[in-house]
Every structure is written in structure tokens, then in C-alpha cells.
Amino acid sequence: MQKQKVKKTMSVLLALAMTASLAACGKSGAENDESIENIMTEAGERDTVIVRIGRQTSSNPKLPEGDTYEDNAYIRMVEKELNITIEDAFEANAGDDYNRQVSLALSASSLPDIMQVATKDELTELYENGLIADLTDVYERYASDYVKSVYDSFGGRALNDVAYDGKIMAIPATKPDGGPSMCWIRSDWVEELGLTVDLDGDHCLTLDEVEKLAEAFIEANPENAEKVIGMGFSSGLTDSNSDTAFSINAIAYSVGAYPRLWYKDESGTLVYGSTTEEMKETLAIVKRWYEEGLIDQQLGTRTYEDGIALLAGGQCGIVFGSWHIPDWMLNNVYALNENAVFEPYAVTDSEGKVNCTHAKATGEYIVVNAEFEHPEIAVQILNLFYDEIGNSPELLERYPEVGEYLNIGVDGTARPFNIEVKASTYMEDIYKELSAALSGSGTREGISSAEERASYDAIMAYMDGSGDITGWCKLHSRYKGGGLLYSLTENNRYHWITPVYPETTSTMNTNWANLLKLEEESFLKIVTGSADLDEGFEAFVSDWNKQGGETILKEIMEQMREE
After folding, report:
1. In sequence order, what DSSP letters do the residues of 174-186 get, joined into one string?
2. Residue 11: is its pLDDT beyond 70?
């Protein structure tokens, strides 16, 4: 029964996919760029170089028995290909523990040859103290054509973020645009109740349509749960990431509000999105939903974990979140109910557009000690992991244990660099290749990413009944979520906003935590009725300005003038 249902769902999805172009993404220079071969030849001709790195670790790296951080498949491949020996100058779990080690290295002016730093503030400090190498020339000479194309896909936003006085001072991780906070709906409930959703098949809904569906789910209670809520939210309500799960961001964006973000309004004035009239309009909508019982009446105390439990228990059939929440959240629903099926939709504004914000193009940064004699090694490692592994089948043939690492999900901390370097349109590109392979118009080998070839395998195993929850997750995230991102792009449904991502200002250092607490508490009081909408929002904006918000705006504007 389940297998038949899955097949039916898949046939519908594939039919939809055929309406889009399934042309494969352009391949890497690993197949066509002779610079890679030349670089490897040059590395092989030099004397063995010892490279001391700052190593991020994980409490559960999933390394096979016998492998360690200093001796594993990734390290062995790098050492053989680049004629180097990697030693860990320090090891610490990713996050606060690692950041403390970086701070100690900074204070002592004793840096490893290569290390990772978490913030732009740290990068700026390293540059201003002359502690890190200028990578401009080695990037231009050694970075593969494919790697350069990945950074170029951000329209200058990625490399500009690591540029000081026109010099490239770090290798940045990239953050592809995550797209909107999608409205994930229990489509098996829709089918069971005979409801009509998305008549034109564009996978876009208005707020009114979402509201009516929530009402229908509450009235029908498809799984006879003790208490059904219409839509799942957490007490945090808003987030600076557009696609954060359990937030009201999708509602806010649909009315032109961009909470917790700095951006220029139509007049060119820098604003903080949580203090705008559009944000007040958003709170008015959510407040009405709360009053009408479409939102959990225990909203004020709900955590992420509570929201997941409501979904898994059949008490909620609508939740907002990123394209990848099936991998780590909706999977909890399937674990308890193998008949559960979700479908993602985008929420439009009054003009039929999907408002979305560009993510900060970069994340963490790889820096090289100014005294290290071989800064090119950092770029060569970059080529290996973010070009050749994904784009050169020959490399995985030479190092099958690396391929096995990808299959078993060895943590990224096992690599010398615990970062991701992906094009801004990564998911749209993967979707094209994956959908082509699934529909038969392409092949598994046409999927350029080794990671996503594993996704294809998992989906196919799930479809023929031999797979597990992984296939269900990948079908929903990579295929359905990725397909929606692709459709929005291809059909020109996006209205993009590019926020300002400032460095931490002096007032942010002292006041930001309190300002966020003020925002969260004020919004929650307004929605749950503890504060009047008009008076409560006016008081929030006034207090926000008085408690440092106005000063921070001025500090950010000063940063922008200096740039």
C-alpha cells in the first residue's frame, strides 16, 4: 500500500518536473581545465611541506575504526596529492571551544600555518595586525576555473567580503541562498479530506489560502489527535535567516517586512526590519490567527522540540521552514507515520511575487599565516575538496575510501577545512541534475556532486521499497524543496532584497543581546494579547531606539561610508 502511494506521488512529481528544462549543470574544470593537472604536477615536484593547522573537531565525527583526525582518508588523499604532511597545531570542538583556541592564538600572535576563523571581526583583527597572508596572487594563479566560477556566482559578494584594500585575505566559505521559508503542508491530509490546494499548480499560495487550509485541518482532525493546531510556530517568532523553521518570517516577507535584518528601504534609508510598519502589519495578522485559534494557544512557551512533537503526533499539518527541513525535522513525522507526505509551497505577496533576501554570501574564513612559505597549499586544498572530489570521478576511483566517507556521512571536521564552498544556485543546479536522472532523461553519472549522487541512490532505494527514511528525506528536500526553488527562479517569481550584513559595532557588543530580548518579548506579548498592537509596537520601537538601536544604525551607516 505504501509503495503504491509513493509511486503515485513520484509519478506526479516527475510529470511536473518535465515542464522544466532538465539540462545538466556545467561541469568543473577538473575535466577540462589543464591548470588542475599543472598544479598537481607542481605540488609533486616540491619537497614535502609540513603544514600545521587549527583543527575543528566533532564529538561524533563518524570516522571508521582506526582513523583519526590527523590520519584519515581525507588527510591521506591531501598528503599524497599535494606532497604535504598535516599536523594539528590545536584541536577543539567546532563552536565556542574552537573559537576560544583561535582567540588564544590571536592574543599570543602565534598562529598555525592555516586555520579557520568564525567571524568577520576576527578576520579584520588578523588583517589589521598583519598576521595573515595576502592570497590575491595565489588565488588567481592556483584556484581552478570551477572554484572561481563558484565564487563568481555570488556577483562579487563572496570575495568582496574578504577583500581589504583590494586584496584577498582569506578563503571564504560560501552560503548559497536558502530561498524562502516554505509552507510545508501534509499533502496526505489534503488528499484524504478531498481538499483543493494550488489550483494553478505553481506551488505558490496566498496567506488567505494558507489560513483556509489551517481552518480545514483543525475542523477535520485527520489523525484524531487530542488537540489540533493550524500552524506550528515557536515563541521566538522571528529570525534573521529568512528560512528559519517555526518562525513567522514567511508571513512577514509576504507583506514586505524583513525582521532582524538591516536593509535600505525604497528611499535609500537604512532601516532595521523589525521596526517597520510592515512588521506591525505582520504582527496584526499573526495576532488575529492566535485569537481565532489557528495558532497554538501555548505559543508563549513552545520550543523547537515542542513543535516537532506536535508535528510527529499528528496535531499539526502546516509548518514553515527551509527546503531541507525534511532531513532533520519532518523526518520525525515519517518515523511515526510512514504514510505521511509533505508538499512545499511559497507564500506570495499581493503582487504574486515571493519576497526573499539574499543570504550573507560568506560564512567562516580560511586564513594563512603571513609567515607561511607556501600559501598556495590552502588554494590547492580548496581545489581538491570543492572541485575534484565532486567533479572528477577519477579522483574517487584513486581514493575509494574518500567515496565511502561520503556515503557513510563522515563529519566535515575530518577534512582540513570544515567549510562548504558551493555556488549561489547550488540547490537549483542539483535539482536539474537529480530530476533528469530520476525521470530518465539524464543519468546518475550526470549528477556532478558525489553527495547528491548518494541522494539519488537513497531516493531510488526508497522508491523500490528497499530503502529507509533517508530516501524519504532526500525525496522531500532535494527533489520537492529543490524543485520549488528551481521553479521560483525559472518562473521569475522572486523579488530579491539584499540586506546589509555589518561587522559588529561597539554598541552591538554591549546592547545587542538585550535588544533581541526586547524584540522577542514585545512581539510575543502583542501576538498573545498581553499588549495592545498599536501601543505595544510603538513602545517597542521607542524602547529599541533608546536602548541602543538608533546608535547602532548610525554606526552601521558609518561603516558603509568607510567602504
Report:
1. E-------EEEEE
2. no
Contacts 24+ apart (CB under 8 A), 40-43: 40/81, 40/82, 43/81, 43/82, 43/83, 43/84, 43/380
Q: Is the dihedral of CA 285, 288, 292, 296 positive or negative?
A: positive
The Cα–Cα gap between 562 and 213 comes to 49
CATH code: domain 33-175+362-414 is 3.40.190.10
CA distance 346 to 84: 48
Q: Check if the beta carbon of residue 479 is closer than 8 Å to that of residue 487.
A: no
Cβ atoms of 66 and 101 within 8 Å: the answer is: no
3-state secondary structure of 384: helix
Q: What is the 3-state secondary structure (H, E, C) of 321-340?
A: ECCCHHHHCCHHHHHHCCCC
Give DSSP secondary structure letters for 482-510: HHHHHHHHHTT-EEEE--B-PPPPHHHHH
Mean model confidence pLDDT for the chain: 90
- For the segment 353-365, the average pLDDT, to the nearest whole number, is 93
Answer yes or no: are the C-beta atoms of 94 and 418 closer than 8 Å: yes
Buried b (16+ CB within 10 A) or exposed e, 261-286: bbbeeeeeeebbbbbbebbbbbbbbb
Q: In the chain, which segments carry CATH 3.40.190.10?
A: 33-175+362-414, 182-355+499-562
Average pLDDT (396-420) is: 90
Q: Which element (helix H / strand E) includes 398?
A: helix 393-398
Please state, in angstroms and rounded to a whole number, the distance separating the CA atoms of residues 347 and 214.
Answer: 14
* 119: three-class secondary structure by DSSP: coil
Alpha helices in 194-330 (DSSP H): 207-220, 249-254, 277-291, 304-312, 325-328
Answer positive or negative: Cα dihedral of 477, 191, 317, 491.
Answer: positive
CATH of 182-355+499-562, one of 3.40.630.30, 3.40.50.720, 3.40.190.10, 3.30.460.80: 3.40.190.10
Distance, CA of 407 to CA of 411 (rounded, Å): 11
Q: Distance between CA 485 and CA 20 in Å, rounded?
A: 12
Give the other-Cβ count within 10 Å of 552's Cβ: 23
Q: Which strand (E) or helix (H) includes residue 93?
A: strand 84-93
Beta strand pairing call for 342-347 and 204-205: parallel
**Is residue 167 within 8 Å of residue 136, measured between CB atoms?**
yes
The C-alpha angle 278, 280, 284, rounded to 5 degrees, equals: 115
Q: Quick one: which of 198, 225, 120 has its CA closest to 162?
A: 120
Mean pLDDT computed over 275-297 = 96
Task: Give the residue with greater pLDDT, 459 vs 41.
Answer: 459
DSSP lists the bridge partners of residue 320 as: 183
| CA 57 – CA 46 distance, rounded (Å) | 30
Q: Strands 167-168 and 270-272: what pairing?
A: unpaired
Largest CA distance in the chain: 73
